[in-house]
Amino acid sequence: MTRGRVISVNDAALPRWEELEEDGAPRQREANFTWSDQIPTGNALLDGEWWRADTDQAWVSLEEEFASDIGATLGDRLSLRIGADALEVTVLNIRAVDWQSMRPNFFMVFPRKVLEAFRECI
Asked: What is the pLDDT of residue 107?
């Protein structure tokens, strides 16, 4: 697990969380990032498909409300910041998460190889 933030969606920069009043506009926000070879227990795919465990494609799975909050949909390109490093990914699927499950849940899930480059943060 590591922390990062979404900087832009399809090259449209998101303002920092503190830059605007609460008006419903998408904003940058920190989130915990994790990887998984399979769809996490308690999650359900709503749109798209899950990746193969051995993929090195820069994909991401988004939780449905988080995706809506940042204005992202299937196939969108996200620019992320993890510490001082940049990462570009494509939304491969949208998930529903059972937040009441008491399991670790995440807004963003990546293929293992995508986050390996950031292992010092994991």
From this structure: 94
**Cα–Cα dist 108/2, whole Å:** 11
Determine the structural domain holding residue 6 and report its residue range: 2-17+27-121
In-domain check, residue 22: no
- Does some domain include residue 90? yes
SS3 20: coil
- DSSP letters, 27-60, are ---EEEEEE-SSPPTTEEEEEE-PPPTT----EE
What is the number of residues in the chain?
Answer: 122
pTM: 0.87
Point out which residues pair with 62 in neighbouring strands. Answer: 94, 108
CATH of the domain at 12: 2.40.40
| Cα diameter, the chain | 43
